[in-house]
Amino acid sequence: MSNNNQRLLNPNSNPNPNPNPERVLAIPVKKTDPVELYRPLRELVARKYSESDAEKVESVLETLNKCRSDMVERGDLSLPMQRDCLIHYFKCLCMVEPLFIAISSDADSELINFVWYDAFYSEHNNGVSSQHNSIQLEMAAVVFNIGAVCSQIGASSDRTTALGRHLAMDAFNAAAIFFLKLWKDLVKDVSATLDLTLLFAESLHCLFSAQALELKSQQQLKDNSSSAFEKYRCAVSFQSASEHYQRAYDLIVGDSVATEHVHKFDQTWITHLHQKKEFFQVEARQRLSSVQPISQPLRSFSSICALDHDAESVNEKLVRAICWRVDQWMPKLEGVYLDLVLSEDSPFKIMDGGKLVANPWDMPPPYPTNFAIPSSSSSSSSHILALPLKKSEPLDLYESLRNYFVLKYSESVAKSVEGLLELLNKLRSEMLRDDLSLPLRRDCLIRYFKCLCMIEPLFPMTTSPNPPIFVWYNAFNPQENSSQHNIHLEKASVLFNLGALGSHIALSCDLTTIQGQRIAIDALHDASYWFLILTHEAEKASATIDLSISCTQMLHEIISAQVADLECNFPHPRYASVSAGCPVFVLYRKAFDMSTLGPLAETRVQSLIAQHLLSIMRTCFIEFAPSDVTEQFLIGYCKAAQFLTGYRIPVGCQPPCLDLLSKAGPVMIKDENLVANLSGSDIRIGGDELPGDHSNMAIDQN
Fold this sequence. Notes:
By secondary structure, the chain is mainly alpha-helical. The chain has helices spanning 3-9, 38-48, 51-73, 79-104, 135-156, 162-186, 198-223, 228-253, 256-265, 268-289, 301-305, 314-328, 336-342, 397-408, 411-416, 418-431, 438-455, 487-507, 514-537, 549-567, 584-596, 604-615, 630-645, 656-659, and strands at 113-117, 128-132, 348-350, 356-358, 470-473, 481-484, 667-670, 673-676. The strands form 4 sheets. It has a two-stranded antiparallel sheet with strand order 1-2. The chain has a two-stranded antiparallel sheet with strand order 3-4. It has a two-stranded antiparallel sheet with strand order 5-6. Helix 3 (51-73) packs across helix 4 and helix 14 (397-408) packs antiparallel against helix 16 (418-431). It comes from Arachis hypogaea (Peanut). This is BRO1 domain-containing protein. Residues 23-431, 427-681 form the BRO1 domain. Residues 1-22 are annotated as: Disordered.
């Protein structure tokens, strides 16, 4: 271990010791008074639109009211449950936002009075904000509270373990990004208590960013890498932590009112910030002076996620793997409407007849749906190309992976990940079933892909006596197959099938209706997204030509052209994609040229696709029915999805590891084990339970 690392990990030998190394700061949530939302909003919808429209959206209004009531009155909620409730409530708020614009100008509407108290010092002269019909205040306060809860999750995590440090770091990062959104997007339109000012929003963003960076630097020191690149990254983490602590400190002490406000809350805060900024300034200077800047990509998957022989960190690295993979993806706004209609994992649903349903925040999946894909026998959708799905041989992943954990680590480590391995094995069997509906198969593939991302650090399993062999057949020529130990073949094949399923869903839709065309557009957007991800995964999978980079790029271009083709005729411009401004013919022509050049030119892929593209280089013209009030709610839901996925601000406010604390997912962290969470997700897809003896299996059912 280097002298610098020894100095920090042994404070007694450090002339510049880290002050309060075990202390992290968290903030309380804002308190509010109860308010009735359901009755006045439902009456407004019935009066402004119609009673039938009110019936269509009353489930959303009921869940909105329940979320707020639970947020105010229930004192028994754990921190992950508080986070789930607040995020659910925020989505509902975004859906009803247009109603508050209408209610402010409606003389017959009942006033809705939102009262919020300052989180730090409610006894202050301006410690209470009370405003009529101000959904901006409500949304800002809710985002503040989500950030506050994330900060409490970080502070309460066991940071003496690798998994606990990872959870704390991601929780503080999430808190920082919520306060960044509050600072950049929300508080500028709100006149409220001091905690909802630009100054406090920015200072809290800097504080929690600094704490996340401090934990990151601690983890880098424990990893004790000798490479020049890792030493440089560690020095940069110290420098970034120093800058954020400095900014948080300067913002507070530079404003006398803010200084007094913080002192009223906790007199040690400013001293703590001062000590931290001084410590990290010195450490950053020393570390940066001892290393040379490195010109190298900031991330290497092997350095981030490769499993070593440290059994204590196994679960943390499995969790870190899925977090790292999600960090590499662009925000996924596509497929939002598709999830609302078809996915059993989405608590917000569009039911048959156009009724919107918002299931309660504390109701676990699966969420029932009665909406069938609106199909048509007409030729209106004949220009959509339904791509064939790849086939695979059955495989028992559970035994080979569990034996590997026992061989490399111990029986106890194997038991700690048993729930994940059983779920993984079940999902792989289910995804091969031909009798599953398209929506169920899509849900299964998405869950399976997330599990694959978690186990990716296990590969290549060079020390295993029986590593799994993945066998996949060419989608366009089933006589050809690829057989490998390479997990990237498995991941690439799953991504291909996700894209292909999107094309099947789109083909089955009735394009003469708004509902059918919207589902088709979103299904193709979804397919385009998966093929775009596949272009990156295909680089690591040497397989049949359907998984080649040239083929996946061509398929992505075909889907993009079909999306633009449909969007040309869709009456709601918010669905316009980046390709919509490009002439549809040009997009189809680009895909056609890709199919007739290079390695695809002499293959069956070319003969199947090029002829199809030649026949559809045209634009469709379709008539539509009028829209109704549910359209406004859907716009709000898309706004919430955009806000939470970080479309304009970097991703991170919903890191996957915090979702593993929720009871709404199929896998859950409990007592630092990865367990199958049967209370949070119905993993009996198609009616079959998980195989094996569950008498000793760790499952959270509380």
